[in-house]
């Protein structure tokens, strides 16, 4: 096999990888867009119509979070729960709305309430997480 053929095969494989990765990214976005609550990486992986490993899901979610397309909250159990950013711009990294975790059904939902984030002199805020824990209306 000559050098030119090797390059063509490599480029073809790169195109294939990009396509598959884009397909997986689109599926993750679609799953999150249809959800009424936040989802863990395991939840997303379970909802995928194709086989995808957890590392790939986390990489996709990390990329989305860096772009401001998704945000996450760490639940009481230490797991990250992700949701699409409906109103956040791509440069907006501070999510100042409240999340509610139900102790009964374990769902974590974004709430419309926002909080004022104070300026902390001498500190640069890079992330905020607001989690309220209780019993949701469905489980009462």
Automatic annotation (TrEMBL):
Gene3D superfamilies: Winged helix-like DNA-binding domain superfamily/Winged helix DNA-binding domain. It holds the Pfam family FUR. GO terms for molecular function: DNA-binding transcription factor activity; transcription cis-regulatory region binding; zinc ion binding. Zn(2+) binds at residues 102, 105, 136, 139. It comes from the Bacteria. Binds 1 zinc ion per subunit. Keywords: Metal-binding, Zinc. InterPro entries: FUR (IPR002481), WH-like_DNA-bd_sf (IPR036388), WH_DNA-bd_sf (IPR036390). One of its GO terms (biological process) is regulation of secondary metabolite biosynthetic process. Its cofactor is Zn(2+). This is Fur family transcriptional regulator, ferric uptake regulator.
